[in-house]
Amino acid sequence: MRAARLKEHGKPLEIEPVDLPSPGEDEVLVELRFGGVNPVDRYGAEGRVAPDGPLPRTLGGEASGVLDGQPVVVNGEGLGTARDGVWAEAAVVPWDAVTEVPDGVELREAAAMGVVGVTAWNVVHHMGQVRSEDRVLVLGASGGVGSAIVSLVKAAGAEVWGQTGSEEKADIVRDQGADHVIVGGPDEIKEIEPTLVLDPLGGGFLAPVVEALATRGRIVVYGTSAGPDVQFNLHQLYRKRASLLGYGGMQLTREERRAAMEQALAAAARGELRIRIDSVLPLEDVNEAFQRLVDRNVRGKLLLALA
Fold it and tell me: For residue range 51-61, what is the model confidence (pLDDT) as tens digits?
């Protein structure tokens, strides 16, 4: 069985054959089809996440596949960090890492549900509690999670502004259902007066977001790809009675993760959550996938073909 193996932090992954162990108690063998590629996987390869994880090990924290003829999603439970992950043709995984895929959801989409689907659902509905009367600003709206969030917010009946950094990606945001597209950086968002902002960027975006936010507005931060260090006017935040909330997917309990996964899959089956797939790369191109994340040369979700 071929797998993408991390031999040494900071070094390219190697594709090599590995022997699978027999499933233990509360474990199952899943035949895998597609694996999702996420920034956290690259951080793991660099040793910035799970630096004490076993080496060598198979990376990959989410995938779709087949278990006894049933389409399934596999994610969580330390896959790719505390134990071998799922960037392989098959994997022995904990039973608690497996969720059945409902009718109407393809395995390609399902492979992105562990991060994109769960994050989008929780950010929009659990943290943001989006309402039909909201004016929602989605930053980073052309990315894998951002584009999925746009579709969920639109399905909830709210008015959606999607921000992206280049005109080339504007059509992606429109196709996902945004009512308005903002092309540009922090200076372009000051006139919107959103009631809800969903922010994976941080950095220089937070100050103009706080300034633009409507009274009693909410900000949900779920990433810092523009930088973790921020400076903003605290007077504006508290005088508007605004809420600044943080979402970290790695802090979910097993029950929270499974509930969000089931809800995200159900939303995808109803057509409310749309996963935009950028590319499906062969397993041998896993290091190219990492480089595309570094270069921000991604319009949606990157997947690996595992079989």
Answer: 999 999 999 99
